[in-house]
């Protein structure tokens, strides 16, 4: 597997990673299981990030609307 600097690693890339085998290397099943766990976590974090970005944008739009509606309002007691 080749990692190019600047590119984000995607979950499917982690799941499909292949490593060279050596006589006394790591247990391929354990490596595969670990990579699957990492990929699942990446998927979960990506979903959470998408949800957070959507909610953040919704809040920004609501704030802009609120500011537009209250732009001409003055605070009570400061109308002098």
TrEMBL record:
Keyword 4Fe-4S found: no
Domain of life according to the entry: Bacteria
Transmembrane stretches in the record are none
Q: Which InterPro entries match?
A: DivIVA_domain (IPR019933), DivIVA_fam (IPR007793)
Q: Name one Pfam family in it.
A: DivIVA
Give residue spans, biased composition: Basic residues. 71-80
Identify the keywords attached in UniProt to this record, alphabetized. Answer: Cell cycle, Cell division, Coiled coil, Cytoplasm
The protein's location, in the record's own words, is: Cytoplasm
Q: What is its main location?
A: cytoplasm
- Annotated region Disordered: the residues are 52-80
This chain's protein is named Cell wall synthesis protein Wag31
Q: Which organism is this entry from?
A: Micromonospora aurantiaca (nom. illeg.)
């Amino acid at each position: 597997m080749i990692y190019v600097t600047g590119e984000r690693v995607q979950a499917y890339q982690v799941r499909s990673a292949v490593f060279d085998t050596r006589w006394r290397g790591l247990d391929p099943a354990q490596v595969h299981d670990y990579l699957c766990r990492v990929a699942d976590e990446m998927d979960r974090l990506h979903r959470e990030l998408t949800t957070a970005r959507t909610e953040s944008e919704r809040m920004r739009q609501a704030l802009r609307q609120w500011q537009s509606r209250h732009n001409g309002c003055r605070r009570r007691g400061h109308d002098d």
